[in-house]
Amino acid sequence: DVHIVVVDPHRPGHELRYHPGETNLRMADVCVVNKIDSAPQEGIDAVLDSIHEHTTNAKIVLAASPFHVEDAERIRGKRVLAIEDGPTLTHGEMTYGAAVLAAKQHGAAALVDPRPFAVGSIAETFRAYPHVGELLPAMGYGDGQVDELRETIARSDADLVLIGTPIDLRRLIDFGKPALRVSYRLEEVGEPTLVDVLARYGLIESEALV
Question: DSSP secondary-structure letter at 187?
């Protein structure tokens, strides 16, 4: 077996503080250091140090995660409500995600603070995790959670909704407002690439390197 682990330099130290993340890192044969295009250099250096110290010569693949926004020009000048993956914000301790970054990059007039409009478990999440600010955490996709998201969005004064969650919420929710999806693309930086490493382990044919 070959253990491939992704580490996040936006959250340096988490690879050693949480289970099963620490176990995964110590078992890793290959570590993909992702998001180096947006993470601070000190975060990148910290996770590289963790890899060198806590793995047995794991191969390192550096990668960027540029985000893609459909019809990005529609963001400019709008009051944007950014929806992000809830657990990444709460237990993951992040204060932003792809939707927030995309809104700022593409000229949004402002990020809408959803806290005054939040209902039910979403309001409870804001109280329990006060570091979560001008973005809307999607904590789950059950019927009740989807209804609370829908109501919170409808109550907001946003011109546009940006969806940064792993799934496209437009499949579940009629927002009643224009909505765009933000997604990531993996781009390896330099060598070795993930294909190179997998070929060396015999997991793919070498001609795939062409």
Answer: E
CA–CA gap between residue 169 and residue 164 (Å, rounded) = 9
- Taking the whole predicted model, whether its pTM rises above 0.90 is answered as no
Please state at what angle helix 120-128 crosses helix 143-155, rounded to 10 degrees. Answer: 80
| Cβ atoms of residues 178 and 96 within 8 Å | no
Give the span between the Cα atoms of 23 and 34, in whole angstroms.
19
CA dihedral 174, 176, 177, 181 (to 10 degrees): 0
- What would you report as the CA-atom Rg of the chain, rounded to the nearest whole angstrom? 19
Tallying the residues shown for the chain, one arrives at 210
What's the N-to-C CA distance of the chain in angstroms? 25
CA–CA dist 122, 145 (Å, integer): 8
Cβ–Cβ contacts within 10 Å for residue 27, how many? Answer: 14
Q: Exposed, middle or buried: residue 164 (CB in 10 Å: 0-12, 13-18, 19+)?
A: buried
- For residues 100-115, give the mean pLDDT: 95
Within 10 angstroms of residue 106's Cβ, the number of other Cβ atoms is 20
Compute CA distances 15 → 3, 72, 128, 169, 170, whole Å.
15, 33, 24, 29, 32
Using CA atoms, how far apart are residues 46 and 12, in angstroms rounded to an integer? Answer: 6
15-52, pLDDT tens digit by residue? 998 888 899 999 999 999 999 998 899 999 999 999 99
